[in-house]
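User: Run a structure prediction on this.
Assistant: Running it now.
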Amino acid sequence: MSVLGEFCGELDLRYQRGGRRYVLVAPFKWCGPASNPVCYEVEAGFDTDFASIPFFVRWVLSPTHGLISDYGRAAVIHDYLYRRGARFTPPVSRTLADQVFYEAMLCEDVLWPTRFLMWAAVRLFGWTAYRKA
C-alpha cells in the first residue's frame, strides 16, 4: 500500500443528458494510505457531478473540470462516500469522507491551493449534500 494511497482504474464516463451529471461505465477503486488502509470501489452505473461547487466558486473551479483535471477521481470517490457512506460497516462519516477526499487529491498531486480550497468548501458547505444522502 502506498504512503499516499492509490487509485486502481481510470475514469470511464458517459455524459447523462439533461444535467451536469456523468455515469461511470467501468468501476474504479481507491485504497487509502498505510495510515488508513481501507479501499472503496465505485461501481459501474454510479452517477456523479464531480463536485457540487457553489456558484460563487465556479469562476475559479468548474464543476466539470474533473473530467480533465487531476481531482476528477477524488471527486467521484467523495460523491460516492457522501451518498453511500452511511451504508458501510462501520458507516463513513462526513468528516471521514472529506478526509478521504483530501487524501485522494494528495495522491493525485493536486496543487495545494486547489486541494485546500476544495477540501475547505466541502467542510463548510458539504453538510447539505451529506444530509440529503
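The chain is about 35% helix and 15% strand.
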